[in-house]
Amino acid sequence: MKHLTNHDLKELIGKNEPCLTVYAPLEGDLSKDIQTLQSMLNEACDHARNTFPIVSPHFDGLSAKNVLGEQSDQYQNKGVAIFKSPTFLGIRLMHQKIDPLIVVSDSFHLKPFFNYLQVENRYMAICLDSDRVRLYRGDQMGIESVSEFRSATVVHLTPSRQAFEPITRHGGRFNNQETMRMERSILRFFKRIDNDIRRHYITSNIPVILVGPTRLTQLYRNVNKHRSAVIATIPHSQPTGPMPGDIHHQTLQILEEFHQRRALKGTFEFRYTKPFGRAIDNMSKIAEAAVRGEIKSLMIRSGASVWGRVSRRTGKVLVQDKQASQISDDILDDIGELVLKNQGEVFVIPARDMPTNEPLAAILQPKPIAS
Asked: Beta partners for 345?
């Protein structure tokens, strides 16, 4: 059974065929979780076979043991998502708690993953020493070393030598001439390395993380020519620096927090642009704008669901009860997928941060200025 990456999940956006989605919480007791999940899978498959009788054989035989059988008794996953259609079967283990949910429709239900799908999970980490720079490349799956650069002149600035004391003037002379000389040497080294990295490795807006003692990261920023890409630093004072695995773990947290800050920025933009007609919270109008590709940012109230159907051609919304006898999906999920498919942003944010009382809020793309 295929374990899905973020890239795999992105490929499911807008998939149009009989689809079954199951979200199941896990308690950490393998035998109990298998029993609970199997009960949900049986219910889901019965629902899918009744809803799509022509392809009913494709929804037979989903086994909870096959989904969770590789997990140990001490596994840390809090939930699992299962995606099944006549042409696809995959799972995604989840580290956060999830409410149980079964959705049978003509597309997959992806709303719990919207925020994760848009977090830029590629990054470059620049690990700084005074005479050495190590470059790492990472993504959701892990981190790898790309290159290492060494200074022709050996320079050592360490906290134990108090080499990072502020340089001040006293009687017209510097009180730390040695520190100034070494910092100049480091700046020349960092400038050369920054040019090499920019020329050969960082050719897009991929996020960059600086790793190193605070003074070294400050010096590197002084010569850095792609400041817009440097989104954070990871300070450390250990002589050997953090291990790559530690860098990777901290960077993924930084990227997620960076995405959340963008979501909050969207709420302020909504309030600012609404008087100018560029922000709307009417679900029907949002759906129509999503079909036309006119939405820049969409905010969905966390925990909200509106069941029914959305026309992918016109954006017309039909609200209905969620029943086992009919095709019904979460309208908020469908609209979110339309926005993502048309290169817009989608944020699922807490109710307290929503700029409106409605379950949806959208910022429209600026209209081109007429010439």
From this structure: 297
Identity of the amino acid at 192:
R
**Amino acid symbol at 96:** Q
Q: CA 353 to CA 238: how far, in whole Å?
A: 39
- The residues near 15 (Cβ < 8 Å, ≥ 6 apart) are 85, 88, 107, 108
Contacts of residue 21, Cβ cutoff 8 Å, sequence gap at least 6: 81, 82, 83, 84, 101, 102, 103, 104, 105, 108, 109, 110
Asked if 328 and 322 touch (Cβ cutoff 8 Å), the reply is yes
Under 8 Å between Cβ of 208 and 126: yes
- Spatial contact of 300 and 336, defined as CB atoms under 8 Å apart: yes
| DSSP class per residue in 134-157 | EEEEEETTEEEEEEEEE-SS----
If one counts every other C-beta atom within 10 angstroms of the C-beta of residue 72, the result is 7
Alpha-carbon distance of 214 to 216, in angstroms, equals 6
| pLDDT in single tens digits along all 371 residues of the chain | 788 888 889 899 988 999 999 999 998 888 899 999 999 999 999 999 999 999 999 999 899 998 887 665 445 678 999 999 999 999 998 878 899 999 999 999 999 999 878 766 678 899 998 889 999 988 766 789 999 998 876 445 444 344 444 444 444 444 567 778 888 888 889 988 888 888 888 766 788 899 999 989 988 988 886 665 787 889 887 767 788 888 988 888 888 787 778 778 888 999 999 999 999 999 999 999 999 999 999 999 999 999 998 998 999 999 887 765 567 789 999 999 999 999 899 999 989 999 999 999 999 998 766 55
